[in-house]
Amino acid sequence: MSSNVAEALKNAPSEKVPAGKDPGLTDTFFYDNKIVRDFGIATVFWGLAGMIIGTLIAFQLAKPEMNMGNQYTTFGRIRPLHTNAVIFAFVGNAIFMGVYYSLQRLCKSRMYSDKLSRINFWGWQLIILAALITLPLGITTSKEYAELEWPIDIAITLIWVVFGWNMFGTIARRREKHLYVAIWFYIATFLTVAVLHIVNSYEMPVNFLKSYSGYAGVQDALVQWWYGHNAVAFFLTTPFLGLMYYFLPKAANRPVYSYRLSIIHFWSLIFIYIWAGPHHLLYTALPDWAQSLGVVFSIMLIAPSWGGMINGLLTLRGAWDKVRENPILKFMVVAVTAYGMATFEGPMLSLKNVNAIAHFTDWIVAHVHVGALGWNGFMTFAMLYWLFPRLYKTPLHSVKLANAHFWLGTLGILFYAIPMYWAGFTQGLMWKQFSEDGLLQYPNFLETVLQIVPMYYLRGIGGLFYLSGVFLMVYNLVKTAKAGKLIANERTEAPVIVPTVSNNAGHWHAWIEKRPTQLAIFATVAILIGGLVEFIPTFVIKSNVPTIASVKPYTSLELQGRDLYIKEDCVNCHTQMVRPFRFETERYGEYSKAGEFVYDHNFLWGSKRTGPDLHRIGGKYPHSWHYHHMLDPTSMSPGSIMPSYPWLFEQEIDLSTTQAKLQTLKKLGVPYEDEYISNANEELMSQAQGIAVDLAKEGLNVAPEKEIVALIAYLQRLGTDIKVKNEE
């Protein structure tokens, strides 16, 4: 059933005209194009920045010298900068750009408040700037897609509320009764992202630049990947589906293929997606029932996801001839296809037998980037090419350049994804391989790394192709803007009383399409159910996280070392989760238990192994091995792609924070005694001096207050608690 506005207006019955109203009257008003233009410029600027950083880190993994020898440009520091810049700066600004343009036209109303629009714009840019400053400084929580510290989290909350206020205000005073499908996705995006951000950002501040998660271990992992998976779902997917439902029919000049399918697509997607987070934690210490729930709902996701893809592609029925000539449609077709590929592969990767091979490998990196580069990137480029000529009332400067951008971008995706898939298959199979004698075929983790370095070079080349296309787009858009003049306030007219824009009058769903409040309530209920079903038992039923008596809190020195591990974002490359597979227990040691992480605020299980798992590294090597390894990784592991960390040997532990950290953790339930907290720095120095003495025996003179000593203490603690006889 078509949702084309023109057809719906023609076919829909007119509403009754109230007494005293002239149905022939029209209302003149102005759309705010300036805010759309501003978000468009920000999208391009931050997109370039994020992709340049992404290309740099791609080559850093192939050539460690690209880390540039200082602490502010290491892979660990700037990889989260890349993800935040691409997700929240590039894609985030693209969402605001598309929503601010389409919402005004779908509601036949200017945005509710120009002032709120400005606050939204400048507030979001300042948040991105704060990330740009803090992450290279090592100010991070280390939680995937949620690395920013608590003051920035509060700022994100406030600006998101401003966006919602502006959006719902516009919807409330709309001149169009019917809520088009794109608006449903915008509403669900706002509500769900708000819930995700607030719940996952529950943290206890130590000071202005440091906090600890309010959750620990298993619970923290569950909440984080409930957030992490649904950040992809409700920040990278649902808003772009709403934008697809608006911009694709506009670009093709065709009605959406099926309105009924869009209804099924929307409600099934937002209900099912929220359950799928645990598939990121298969074979970990998360309870089995939660893992199974994640798998079941992940498989179910194929249906609504492909329903949306099919609805998008079939919208082009009768318009495929335009795709040959129109670069905007080319971008959109590949974007929707990439969405379909990623949303098929995701459920497949959630199958336990597939996950056992793929998890922790570069296969996941390929999967993520097919979605990010193809779906989000290409859809954003299509919107920019469609919008700028309309904002400036002039034709696009060069269709040929736009087509060149398309082919460079497509080539970039292929050069990125194919080598990463190859690398992932290689890693997964090499890790599992046993010899005829029953021994690991490749016991040294570095053997697998050296095999895939060429793939990292190819991935970097793919990034250069993709980036060069973006530079072409920037030139094209600038020339387009210069050839025209921004229509900052676009004059338009709409009937004072508009017919109900729906050709499904009488349909069961029609009643909610005029009621944003009811729609918002139902959407909120739909997205809360899954999270509550997973969280409540995990937090309330003690058997889900059985305690181990021998597991004790970290000493003050180990805690400082752990925070240095977080500061350098070592969790980017190293996991701390030995899965219950023979090939893992043979390589790393006893598999990880839920009770070992009860004092871990934040959890550090990791999601990618560029280096080996570290959960059982404690006591495996002498202090001197770690000393040399951090100073020059190749001295201990020839061919290593890990950067060196010379500043750890020069900088001193910040002793002024020790007591505050312990007190904060005590408030979160970690059983530190008051006396221990009072003497924390004395205890710290006592343990540090012991490590310094051991190093001195091997001719390595290091002051006990240096950061490297704290990091060694932490690494030597990892996984040692269960070696003590369990008292329970």
UniProtKB/TrEMBL annotation:
Question: What does the record give under GO molecular function?
Answer: cytochrome-c oxidase activity; heme binding; metal ion binding; oxidoreductase activity
What's the catalysed reaction? 4 Fe(II)-[cytochrome c] + O2 + 8 H(+)(in) = 4 Fe(III)-[cytochrome c] + 2 H2O + 4 H(+)(out)
Q: Which residues form the signal peptide?
A: none
The Swiss-Prot or TrEMBL record lists the needed cofactor(s) as: heme; Cu(2+); heme b
Provide this UniProt record's keywords sorted from A to Z: Cell membrane, Copper, Electron transport, Heme, Iron, Membrane, Metal-binding, Oxidoreductase, Respiratory chain, Translocase, Transmembrane, Transmembrane helix, Transport
Annotated EC: 7.1.1.9
* Protein origin, superkingdom: Bacteria
Q: Which Pfam family, giving just one, matches this sequence?
A: FixO
Pathway named in the protein's UniProt entry: Energy metabolism; oxidative phosphorylation
List this protein's GO terms for biological process. Answer: aerobic respiration; electron transport coupled proton transport; respiratory electron transport chain
State where heme b 1; low-spin binds: H82, H369
Instruction: Write down the top EC class of this protein.
Output: translocase
Topology in membrane: Multi-pass membrane protein
Residue intervals passing through the bilayer: 39-61, 81-101, 121-139, 151-172, 179-199, 225-247, 259-276, 296-316, 328-344, 364-388, 400-422, 456-478, 519-540
In this chain, heme b 2; high-spin is annotated as bound at: H367
Q: Which family does it belong to?
A: Belongs to the heme-copper respiratory oxidase family.
Q: What is this protein called?
A: cytochrome-c oxidase
* The organism of origin for this protein: Pontibacter oryzae
